[in-house]
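Let us work through a complete example step by step.
Step 1: write down the sequence.
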Amino acid sequence: MDDETRTALEAAAFRKLLAHLNARPDVQNIDLMNLAGFCRNCLANWLKEAADERGVPLSKEESRTQIYGMPYETWKERHQAEASAAQLKGFEESKPRH
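Step 2: predict the structure and record it as tokens.
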């Protein structure tokens, strides 16, 4: 597989991941962190890092908007629930693996 095709396929898979996460706002970031070691904010940070490496201007807020499909503060107001004691405990236990 050539690099251009690989990049196109990876981009398509990434867009599908974002669409899936946007369709599942009930899945909280803390749950993603506890289970997978990354969350939507991590994806936004990775997107910004990639832009910075390539000299593409992209602010933290712009990268979050691309990942969340809306401004981050709006997403938090609409979808972010208060973390339960169990979620916080799981986060503390899983933190060393991140």
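Step 3: interpret the result. The chain has a mean pLDDT of 94.
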